[in-house]
Amino acid sequence: MDFDNSKPIYLQIAEVFYENILEKRWKEEERIPSVREIAMLVEVNPNTAIRAFNHLQDLEVIYNKRGIGYFVAKKGFSKVMEIKRKEFMEHTLPDVFKKMNMMNIPLEELINAFNQEKNEKE
Amino acid sequence: MLNCKQLQFNYPKSRPILKSVDLNFGSGNIYGLFGKNGEGKSTLMKLVCGLLTPEFGYCTLFGESTHARSVQTLKDLFFIPEDFELPALPIYTFEKINSVFYPNFSREHFYTLIEEFRLYRKQDISKLSFGQKKKVLIAFGLATNTPLLLLDEPTNGLDIPSKSQFRKILASSINEDKCIIISTHQVRDLHSLIDHMVILDNAQVIFNQSLSTVSDALWFGRPSKENESEVLFSESTFGGRVILNREFQEESEVDLELLFNGVLSNPEKINSILKN
């Protein structure tokens, strides 16, 4: 895994979990790899991997069955959606607005671009 | 688990390499030992495993002096030096002769690693390249399962795919009972594994902190206009990154290289923030 060097690694590992859950590679109530397996896969200290697992457990994305392992929570998919939407609204969008301001891009231009993209896809 | 007390050392007719070094290493951690060339990293490692005699002070592993080199202590530690000589023997003979000294040695693990490194048990060690010899020694060191593992510049001589393999192997071999100490200049090779940083400079320990303490107190990244004035350390390159007091900012990943340079340029400043 390639780490971008600004975000803490444990959060970057969490991102990979989100992706796997959103793309349904990891389904709800399904077992996911262990802390040790993740540490090995992404080549990090197991302590860092544990932090990612704890973080996701606190957010109720995954849960631990003692002695068996970690599973995607029953409502894991919608939890991740909620987290990613919040992130988009609170971080990505303000960033876009800042750039629009800086470059004098009016909202209409954005709407046009959005509609055009939509039409092309359909 | 491993304690160094007032360790002092100099080679004949040279300035002191280590002046009263106090260090404690606990299990469950991967320590990164950093310092400029000739600042005593390798010397410290050799003192720790009893290959050199301290002028003053001592090192103990589980309470026993390592300098005494008792069977009890030697079975609990393994040192992979930067330069080494291996006998001209087939790999499996080397394993047979040396593994008996380590009660927790896993032959299965050793040969798995040998295979992962694309070596064969019948290969003659003397016919291997430097990097391949290093792989034999790394595989052996990890298979000994000793509580203490010392690695001096382990990624030197390894090719690109092997560095990633090495990280995987190391990540899977650390556990609550083990302590791994790595000295390296190749910060980027190993930054995702190290969780505690020790810096030697001017024959002394000038920095000794867990990275979780560091990331709680400091912030690493590109400065914005608002925080330009509070910079603790900045790279002199154009668009360089800086170290700031973290305060209410979101946590950032510790940039070991930046931290190392920051500590060297002004150890008191960084250390005083981490103490609070």
Task: Walk across the major sheet of chain B and give the strand order.
Answer: 6-7-8-3-9-10
Could you give a short account of the major beta sheet of chain A? 2 strands, antiparallel
- At CATH level 3, the topology of the largest domain in chain A is Arc Repressor Mutant, subunit A
Total DSSP helices of chain A: 5
How large is the share of residues in beta strands of chain A?
5-15%
InterPro entries (chain B): AAA+_ATPase, ABC_transporter-like_ATP-bd, ABC_Transporter_VariousFunc, P-loop_NTPase
Pfam families (chain B): ABC_tran (PF00005)
Keywords (chain B): ATP-binding, Nucleotide-binding, Transport
Protein name (chain B): ABC-2 type transport system ATP-binding protein
Brief digest:
Chain B: It comes from Flagellimonas meridianipacifica. Chain A has helices spanning about 10-20, 35-40, 45-60, 75-100, 105-120; strands at about 60-65, 70.
List the helices and strands and how they pair.
The complex is a heterodimer of chains A (122) and B (276).
Chain A: H1 9-22, H2 35-42, H3 46-58, E1 62-65, E2 69-72, H4 76-102, H5 107-121
Antiparallel strand pairs in A: 1-2
Chain B: E1 2-9, E2 18-25, E3 29-34, H1 41-48, E4 56-61, E5 64-65, H2 71-74, E6 77-80, H3 91-99, H4 107-116, H5 130-143, E7 148-152, H6 160-173, E8 179-183, H7 187-190, E9 196-201, E10 204-210, H8 211-217, E11 218-221, E12 233-234, E13 242-245, H9 256-265, H10 267-275
Parallel strand pairs in B: 3-8, 3-9, 6-7, 7-8
Antiparallel strand pairs in B: 1-2, 1-4, 4-5, 9-10, 11-13, 12-13
Helix pairs in contact in B: 4-5, 9-10
